[in-house]
C-alpha cells in the first residue's frame, strides 16, 4: 500500500516541477530566437553597407546617391546617409573642392539605421514615452578612404 502512494506523490511532484520550469524554458527559447532575428537584421544591414563600399571603390567617384541607393537595395527599409569629407596633410579638415599644399585624403562615411520590432515587449527593454510597441534601432556605420 505504501509503495503505491509513493509513486503517486512522485508523479505529482514531477508535474509541479514541470509547470514551474516549462514557462521559464519557453521564455528562454523565444528570447534566443528574438535576439537571433535582431542579429540577423544587423548582419544584413552591415553587409549592405559593405556592398555599397565595394560599389564606391569600383566607381572611384562621389556618387553618394548611388552609394545610398545600393544600401537601400540590399537592406530594405533602412534609413541611409552617405557623406564625403576631406583632409589635407596633418589631418586638417578641408573642403573636398579645395586644393591642399600636400596630398588630400578623401573619406566616405555611410551610416544606415533600421528599426527592429521584437517578437514580444520584453519587460527589461524600456518603451519610449508615448510608444505603444517596442522598436530597437539597429545602426551600422563604416568609413573608407
Describe the structure.
The chain contains two helices and four strands; from the N terminus they run H-H-E-E-E-E. It has helices spanning 2-59, 64-75, and strands at residues 79-87, 93-94, 105-116, 136-144. It has a four-stranded antiparallel β-sheet, with helices on one face. A hairpin with a 5-residue loop joins strand 1 (79-87) and strand 2. The protein starts with a helix and ends with a strand. 12% of the residues are buried.
Short description:
The chain has 145 residues and is of the alpha+beta class.
Largest sheet: 4 strands, antiparallel
From the N-terminal CA to the C-terminal CA, the straight-line distance is 84 Å
Q: How much β-strand is present in the residues?
A: 15-25%
The total count of strands amounts to: 4
Q: Indicate the mean pLDDT.
A: 77
How would you classify the helix and strand content by structural class? Answer: alpha+beta
How many DSSP H or I helices? 2
Could you list the spans in which at least 5 consecutive residues all have pLDDT below 50? none
Total separate domains: 1
The value of Rg in angstroms is 27 Å
Order of helices and strands: HHEEEE
Strand order of the largest sheet: 2-1-3-4
Shape: elongated
Provide key terms for this protein:
2 helices
What is this structure's SSE topology?
Layout: H1 2-59, H2 64-75, E1 79-87, E2 93-94, E3 105-116, E4 136-144
Antiparallel strand pairs: 1-2, 1-3, 3-4
